[in-house]
């Protein structure tokens, strides 16, 4: 996953969204189907803002399901790709670490695949939640799906060895070697990803990071911004094993596994 703040060489996946979809395929639109199911279960209205929309495939699925969708991303390359390849939604440039897309304009804000965790500092998390609250109509929902910081307490399986993945696209074979490390001081999961390709191009090294957010910390942050937490659990979800399915079990209550799923409601102004 790309980071807009990545230093050094250009970011292969952000600059080439078609590679992003080749590396992280979701042909069955599982993430978008899970999101639509959450929105329906909680009776969300039709207007959806998908923050960190990436290639726009989830936003387009929600649009096809009858919703009025705005996809927002900080990457102009992602936005251009979304407009060309996944039309239907409106696509706008916005930084989730503080944005203003109007007051009460949306019935739901979705933020999938750890996009929320690009808020690295407490100030950025506060700005994200204040922006979401402004964007939501009273009763509106915040739906997020992300890595779980608590997973790394006492577990090192994701940290021990680099993860190597290969895939072919457009006649070229790409190989990525990903190393994760925990920065305990910054409370970040730092990622180094080295890309090689068999087309003669030079290797590219990318650096990015996710905030390690803990479930109880998230509850406290949401409460301090006036949100009611309706669901916070580790699955099933679109990136859990086994994955969510329409006829599968309902959400659990544990927050132990490596993915968190959040549904929170903006209750609107308090009545006197
Ligand atoms: C995991 S990716 C895309 C997820 C997308 N929903 C999908 O599955 O195709 C995360 C996205 O967040 C975007 N992003 C990163 N930092 C951002 C920021 N500060 N504001 C808005 N978008 C950001 C990236 O450009 C990227 O498109």
Question: Your description of this structure?
Answer:
The protein is α/β, with parallel strands linked by helices and 272 residues long. The chain has two domains: 192 residues, Rossmann fold; 48 residues, GSPII I/J protein-like (Pantoate--beta-alanine Ligase, Chain: A,domain 2, 2-Layer Sandwich), CATH 3.30.1300.30. 24% of the residues lie in helices and 31% in strands. It is built from seven helices and eleven strands. The strands form two sheets. Strands 3-2-1-4-5-11-10 form a seven-stranded mixed beta sheet, with helices on both faces. Strands 6-7-8-9 form a four-stranded antiparallel beta sheet. Helix 3 crosses helix 4. The chain starts with 11 loop residues before the first helix and ends in a 7-residue tail after the last strand. 43% of the residues are buried. The N terminus is likely disordered. S-adenosylmethionine binds next to helix 4.
End-to-end CA span:
45 Å
CATH topology of the largest domain: Rossmann fold
The overall number of domains is 2
Number of strands: 11
Name the structural class: alpha/beta
- What is the CATH C level class of the largest domain, in words? Alpha Beta
Small-molecule binders here are: S-adenosylmethionine
Largest sheet: 7 strands, mixed
CATH architecture of the largest domain: 3-Layer(aba) Sandwich
Q: What is the share of helical residues?
A: 10-25%
What characteristic shape results from the CA principal axes?
globular
